[in-house]
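Quick one:
INPUT:
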């Protein structure tokens, strides 16, 4: 795995993890009962975005290290996903 593919893999993992972490511990205006006029009751009151970004960065780094180790060790290769025998046999 090259540097560019490692960075792309980390970016994909980071954004996927971020989308999972965003809804955790969110407090909406409707939950608090203090709805600002002109806004939706589901609008976030406090979102803790900085803490979620830090948590996402740590989780993404751990997941990236695990996935990169699996890729670099050769435990799982592209040929393992060749269910229709379209790739040449590895040598």
């Amino acid at each position: 795995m090259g540097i560019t593919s490692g960075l792309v893999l980390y970016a994909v993992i980071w954004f996927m993890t971020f989308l999972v972490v965003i809804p955790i511990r969110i407090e909406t205006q409707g939950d608090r009962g203090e709805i600002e006029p002109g806004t939706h009751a589901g609008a976030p009151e406090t979102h803790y975005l900085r803490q979620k970004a830090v948590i996402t960065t740590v989780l993404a780094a751990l997941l990236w290290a695990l996935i990169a180790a699996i890729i670099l060790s050769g435990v799982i290769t592209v040929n393992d996903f060749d269910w229709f025998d379209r790739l040449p046999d590895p040598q």
